[in-house]
Amino acid sequence: MNLWQQKSLVIPFVLALGMISCQTSATSPSKEVPRYGYSIVNVYGHDTNAFTQGLEFHDGKLLESTGETGHSSLRRVALETGDILQKVSVPAPYFGEGITLLNGHIYQLTWQHQLGFIYDYNSFQKVGEFRYNGEGWGLTNDGQSLILTDGSNRIRFLDPENFRVTKTISVLDGKRAINNLNEVEYVNGEIYANIWHQNLIATIDPQSGRVTAWIDLNGLLRAGEVTEKEAVLNGIAYDKDTSRLFVTGKLWPRLFEIKIKK
Fold first, then answer.
1. End-to-end CA distance of the chain
2. Closest C-alpha to 40, from 203, 195, 220
3. Structural domain of 208
4. The CATH number of the domain where 9 resides is what?
5. What tens digit of pLDDT does each residue of 175-189 get?
């Protein structure tokens, strides 16, 4: 059994504990919160073996973290072709998760080991490790704090100097908790979050945790184009210099530059 299939089996158990509820997630976004569509600006290649867990754009290239025990990695990828330009493997038993770039260092989460890795941006040499409580799913930053999701509706802010939690927000659509928060990106003062197993991105106020909008990304891939049940939308990257937004998914054949249609 692959570890991402094991991840699927973990969820029902967690549901029973009341920690995560797909029924209270984004299946039916509230009518009070705006729902946006998209248009495709450009389409690029993507490695169909990449179980995408984290995505970042910098210096004209993509940084990508991939998962699955024994196949996890950190990569630098050419945007136009999807070619891998640089790669370092994450050794077993670790399962790679979200990444973010802050102050010349790449921070990478692992799923269940409560351990993160720190790499030099240029060389990909590992220069440190850090600890956190609970699972690691998505990671981004606001220029000051590391911002971490764990599959619940909580988002934690960590001090990158000592990795202590400085703030925790609960993500709500109205009064309803939005669980299964996965890969995240900080975009123009808001947190964009993939919802695991749904073609939706929630835009979140980082102060209050309030969902400010939903981005509906249904239709990016044609029906039947991917068959693995875990080949779900998961990957958001933002080019701050040109305001370009990129999305992809686990094991997807393509990466998309999109424009949000309000």
1. 42
2. 220
3. 3-261
4. 2.120.10.30
5. 999 999 999 999 999
